Amino acid sequence: MMGRKTLKEIRRELKEALAATGEDPFEWLEKRMAAKPKSVILPGLYDFLRAKPRKKRGRRRAAAKK
Q1: How confident is the model over 38-60, as pLDDT tens digits?
Q2: Centroid of chain to Cα 13
């Protein structure tokens, strides 16, 4: 079971794991993508790490009763 993790926590953990290689995580991913051009997962991971976190939406108020 993975538990309750936010995307922010997952993104941070991935960046830390990729940084453990001593290289820039994005350069490392680019090299891997060049080596395996048909991979679907690596470009998705690259886009996920590059994406800005989404803004929280405000809660909707209940409509006024007539």
Answers
A1: 888 888 888 888 887 777 777 77
A2: 10
